[in-house]
Design a protein that fits this description.
Blueprint: H1 3-11, H2 46-62, H3 80-93
């Protein structure tokens, strides 16, 4: 995936509807997964993640007249190095 190409698509107003295909590492979680949300990669700029999230949020808001149409919880995946930073801070605090 080319970061510069993605940024050009972003500038052109793409909603990235068919760009990403995500699969959960734990199969039962796939039913809760937003399949077109990009997995963590430095090749995907955060503005693109935000655009995909906001598109889904708008869709959920539009469908809010239907009971239970919106998710009760949103979970974002984070890179492993982020987790390691907090583990390091916790071990240093001991």
């Amino acid at each position: 995936m080319d970061r510069l190409k993605l940024l050009e698509e972003y500038k052109d107003g793409s909603d990235f509807r068919d760009t990403f295909k995500s699969v959960a590492p734990i199969a039962p979680l796939n039913r809760y997964l937003v399949k077109d949300y990009p997995t963590y990669s430095l090749q995907v700029p955060d503005v693109i993640r935000a655009r995909v999230f906001l598109r889904h949020l708008k869709e959920w808001e539009t469908a809010s007249t239907i009971r239970n149409s919106r998710p009760c919880v949103s979970i974002f995946s984070r890179p492993r190095p982020f987790t390691k930073i907090w583990e390091l801070r916790a071990s240093l605090a001991r």
